[in-house]
Design a protein that fits this description.
The protein is α/β, with parallel strands linked by helices and 401 residues long. It has two domains: 2-198 and 387-398, Glycogen Phosphorylase B (Rossmann fold); 207-384, 3-Layer(aba) Sandwich (Rossmann fold), CATH 3.40.50.2000. 42% of the residues lie in helices and 19% in strands. It contains 15 helices and 14 strands. The protein has an eight-stranded mixed sheet, sandwiched between helices. Strand 10 (254-261), helix 9 and strand 11 (280-283) form a beta-alpha-beta unit. Helix 1 (19-29) packs across helix 15 and helix 11 (317-323) packs across helix 14. It is globular. It starts with a strand and ends with a helix. The mean pLDDT is 92.
Length: 401
């Protein structure tokens, strides 16, 4: 098949360490001809074929990440037209059989509609960010006033997008139910679970490797290390994280490592600088190779989601922990099913992200558990349910291909 992959996240090539790049490589492995559209913020528009035979079309986008809402919305609207022109130029004469759209901010609707009509192609929508509803939960949008206009614009676009596509893949069963209840006009069988997925890599570290990484970054060798890696913004509920860290400042059996960046990083930095928590280390984002090794050198992976979420998010960082063979402690709202999933597969623990007491109980359970054995269970679960091959098969089966 000829496949058009649409993304608003920059993908330099199919070897990039990114969940969609892994999926693209899986399709290439099955001898499909793939054209990937990706934005370039700082650099020039270009197109080339990478070493996996994937055609990359880089389109100048302006700033569409980590900028104010108005600028982001305007650049995304302009990006839509630029993509259409770039694909028509770089894939001239190609008839697309499948369009895979990676939905974030409901962008590229116009592009998807244009090429679906032009090529009579099937469209698979992969939902990773349920907007504009996540933005409502975080107070970034409202249903009234100026931001209400933005909300209702995106809501109309969301409905139109859902109607346009042939199949909608969601991150979990709770995601599916949320979309169905919100959009009862959609046929139930149009929506299916399509988990986040990665190309399985065994990052198994020897005890010597683990000790080397811990020594390199000043992490104690004699404590159970709980690690959080990823975004540090409002969705993670930073005040709750601070309360949890503060409640464990005298716990001599644990060490908390937090690696990441984001809009709320400063709050954690201020806490670490002004508190006497000797068992907490905060670090900016690491080089990718060191990050993977650092995760593997720890004992328990942490997931945090703000308690106010009504949208059932399913964080992709779960996969990094599973691949590193770490059990997972998830502290979330009560609407997501990520904690239920972790506990049902027996590779971790869950608590609501409004109870420090329950968090402490989960920490104690982890201290008394065989984390190595539980991490192996999570790794095997990743191989069977979260591999790119599983996603590939779900997508083709969902479209009857």
């Amino acid at each position: 098949m000829n496949i058009l992959f649409l993304s608003i996240y920059e993908i330099k090539d199919s070897n990039s360490k990114y969940i969609y790049a892994d999926l693209i490589k899986e399709f290439a492995r099955h001898n499909h001809k793939i054209f990937v559209v990706t934005p370039v913020t700082n650099g020039k528009a270009e197109d080339y074929v990478d070493n996996n035979g994937v055609h990359i079309i880089r389109v100048e986008s302006g700033t569409i990440q980590k900028t104010n809402k108005i600028k982001k919305a305007l650049n995304l609207m302009l990006f839509d037209n630029k993509v259409i022109n770039a694909v028509n130029k770089c894939a001239k004469g190609v008839k697309f059989d499948l369009i895979f759209t990676m939905v974030a901010n409901l962008s590229l609707y116009k592009t998807t509609k244009y090429f679906k009509k032009k090529h009579k192609a099937l469209v698979y929508m992969s939902i990773k960010d349920i907007l504009p509803h996540n933005a409502l939960d975080m107070g970034m949008l409202t249903k009234k006033g100026l931001y209400g206009l933005i909300y209702h614009y995106y809501r109309r676009q969301e409905i139109a997008y859902y109607k346009l596509v042939d199949k909608i893949g969601c991150m979990s069963e709770a995601n599916c139910e949320f979309i169905r209840k919100l959009n009862p006009y959609l046929p139930k069988d149009k929506i299916e679970v399509q988990y986040n997925s990665i190309e399985p890599i065994d990052f198994n570290l020897t005890q010597e490797d683990k000790e080397t990484m811990r020594k390199k970054y000043g992490i104690p060798l004699d404590k159970k290390v709980f690690v959080y890696g990823g975004n540090l913004g409002k969705p993670q509920g930073i005040p709750f994280i601070i309360n949890c860290l503060n409640a464990n400042k005298d716990n001599r059996d644990v060490f908390f490592l937090i690696v990441g960046s984001g809009t709320e990083y400063g709050k954690l930095e201020e806490f670490c600088n002004n508190s006497n928590c000797s068992n907490v280390k905060l670090m900016k984002a690491l080089p990718r190779e060191d990050y993977d090794k650092m995760i593997g050198a720890c004992d328990v992976g942490l997931i945090f989601l703000d308690y106010s979420f009504t949208v059932p998010n399913f964080p992709s960082r779960l996969l990094a922990y599973m691949q590193a063979k770490l059990p997972v402690l998830a502290c979330t709202d009560i609407n997501t099913d990520v904690g239920k999933f972790i506990e049902s597969r027996n590779f971790g623990w869950w608590c609501a992200s409004n109870s420090v007491e329950d968090f402490n109980k989960c920490v104690q359970l982890a201290l008394n558990s065989d984390c190595k054995a539980m991490g192996q269970v999570g790794y095997e679960c990743m191989l069977t349910e979260f591999s790119t091959l599983s996603s590939y098969e779900v997508i083709l089966k969902g479209l009857n291909l």
